[in-house]
Amino acid sequence: MPFLGQDWRSPGDEWVRTKEGSWEKLKLWRIRVFENLNSTYVARLLRLALEEWDSCYDDLHNLHRPCIRYHRATSREQKKLTSISEAFIHLDMSTAGRDVRRFNYVCKLLRLLLCDKLAFLSGQAQKHVFSIMEDMVNDVIQSQNNVAEMRLLVGFASQALSDHRWDHIGSSRLWNAHHTSVNRMNAKLRKFKVKERKSDGKMTFGALPEECKRHILISLPDHRDILHLGATDVTNHNISNNALLWKQLCFFHFNNRQITTFVNMNAEEKDVDWKYVYRRCYLRFGQKAVYSDMLAICRHCNNIFWNSLGHPCSSELPPCCLSLKPEEFIALFQF
């Protein structure tokens, strides 16, 4: 006679039915409920009870640093295997996508999942991906930052849904819900228009001296931002064509071997067109990915965490952490 456990979906796990009608693990649902409580009711109580609201909330946030213990495989002693859905929740990926320092990292991570792994993700992981994207779209519209990157990401999502229409995990109802979510995000981005800044008497970028402008442009890692700024007026055009600026960009994104491919070794430095060299190197070798903040994994306790926030390590040994690129983070999980 066959044995039927208490829960046929996953023996040993408790499941709960959500408002959307889908089933979710009780432990993940409980974590999400407490996260919502922390972001609403606790914040309201602190704001009413304490005069120094900002500093107290920062201290509270530092006490709960997002991280997750990574379990590589199951064994006789350990039957738990970390899933990417749990990682999204524990690492607070939705908040990370709204952080200007971590936006590029989360954007690249979602792009890799949409282009290569969407058809292999579980239904719960798919819902997390599109929920994070929708939060990012709302934040982009409100802050008016990274609009072009968000439009590209939504375009990749739309293309991925069309490509994997017949070979995906999950029901057709779930897939149609993803289509509805993407159409809603597209509609919001189409309606969005950049609001022109009103004259408030404060200093603008155009009022800065050329030396300050040049110093700001040197800190930009993406050449597209420099080209767009150079198209605004004559002064910015002259600054954006500075040879020293493009030389620094060349040595930032490419190594000496790549640069010497397009630079004549016998030519004098004043005769080198660094903007042309950068364009040729970019077309041949691509651009180096730059992230203000990245995920990392601790070699002692196997916790995955954000570099800027750290993690509570149980080991007394000196810290030894490995930064994870988006593709390396995805490679940790089995699909």
Automatic annotation (TrEMBL):
Pathway per the UniProt entry: Protein modification; protein ubiquitination
One GO CC term on file: nucleus
Primary localization class, coarse: nucleus
Keywords, comma-separated and alphabetical: Nucleus, Ubl conjugation pathway
One BP term from GO: protein ubiquitination
Nucleus as UniProt keyword: yes
Record InterPro entries: F-box-like_dom_sf, FBX25/32
Keyword Nucleus: yes
Compartments in which it is found: Nucleus
Name of the protein this chain belongs to: F-box domain-containing protein
Organism of this sequence: Dreissena polymorpha
